[in-house]
Amino acid sequence: SAITVNNKSVTGFTDLGAGAYKVTYTIASGDTSRTAGTVPASVVLTDAAGNTSAAYTTVAVNSLAIDAVAPVISTITSNATTPGILKVGNSIIFTLTPQAVEPGATVIGSYNGVALSWSTANGGATYTATYTVSEGDADQLTALQISGVILTDSSSNASDPAAGTDVLKTID
Which parts of the chain are beta strand (E)? Predict the structure, then answer.
């Protein structure tokens, strides 16, 4: 028997009886992304005697959609672009811009050892976070750049870690 989903051969399916089969398709990097209802599937069955059925093909697998594209972070910028010193109570605002609008995405990133809380006010066109210097934060005698920021889209695809390069302020 042969089953293909999204033009890839799938193995390890289970016969549930009464003409029903169960198959697990795992999305992999490089798969073709598809909108809901456009994932092609084909089934050809072979019985124990070697008889083969005609192919049953469909272009809609329930409401299945495939998102096989990880988001890309275009830039991470800040409002700390002039030299100076940040003291307790001063803040830096970071703005992450994805290559494409990413509604429902999440961002993980910290600055100076402090986890940042990222949010969007424009449907995923940009994400922002504010770092405020607090008593006990690490001093930085040279400008510290934000790094290791990861954007995860609503399908759980994660970007490569990204960094900013424009912070010119030190931290006291």
Answer: 2-5, 8-10, 14-17, 20-22, 41-44, 56-58, 73-78, 84-86, 91-98, 106-108, 110-111, 114-115, 127-132, 150-152, 169-171
